[in-house]
Amino acid sequence: MVTHVTSFGRSGLYDWLIQRVSAVILAAYFIWIAGYIWFNPDMSYGQWRELFQSTPVRVFSLLALISLGAHAWIGMWCVLTDYLTERLMGSTGTLLRIALQIGCGVVMASYMLWGIEILWGI
Fold it and tell me: In this structure, are residues 69 and 111 in contact, taking their beta carbons and an 8 Å threshold?
C-alpha cells in the first residue's frame, strides 16, 4: 500500500492529467524541431544558434524541458510504487522505493537545472 508520504498528496487524476498534457507538449516540440530540421537541411551551427537565441523558442524549449521532467517523475513514481512494495520485495521494499525516488528526484532536478543553464545561459 502506497502511503500519502510517498505520493506527496497527489491524486491519480492529477497525475493522469499531467502525463497527458506533458505528452502533448513533448510531441508538439518534437514535431516542431523535426519539421524545422526537415525544412532546413543545410542548416549551419550559426542558424541553429540563432534559432535558440529567440525568446519564443527558449520558452517552448523550457516548457518541453519542464514537461519532460514532470512526465519522467510521474512515470518513475508509478513504476517504483507498483513494483517496489513490501508485498513483492519484503521488508526492504519501502526503503528501497524511497531511496530510488530520492535518487530519481535528485537526478531529474540536476538535469532540469543543467538544461536551464544551457538554454538560458544563467
Answer: yes
Tens-digit pLDDT profile for residues 71-119:
999 999 989 888 888 888 888 888 899 999 999 999 999 999 999 999 8
| Class of domain 10-120 (CATH, top level) | mainly alpha
* CA torsion, ordered 106, 112, 115, 116, to nearest 10 deg: -130
What are the residue boundaries of the structural domains of the chain, listed by start?
A: 10-120
> What is the distance between the alpha carbons of residues 16 and 103, in angstroms, rounded to a whole number?
23
Residue 71 near residue 19 (C-beta atoms within 8 A): yes
d(C-alpha 71, C-alpha 65), whole Å: 10
Tell me the per-residue pLDDT of 31-79, one tens digit each, with 9 for 90 and over: 999 999 999 999 999 999 999 999 999 999 999 999 999 999 999 998 9
pTM beyond cutoff 0.90: no
Please give the Cα distance from 94 to 82 (Å, whole number): 11
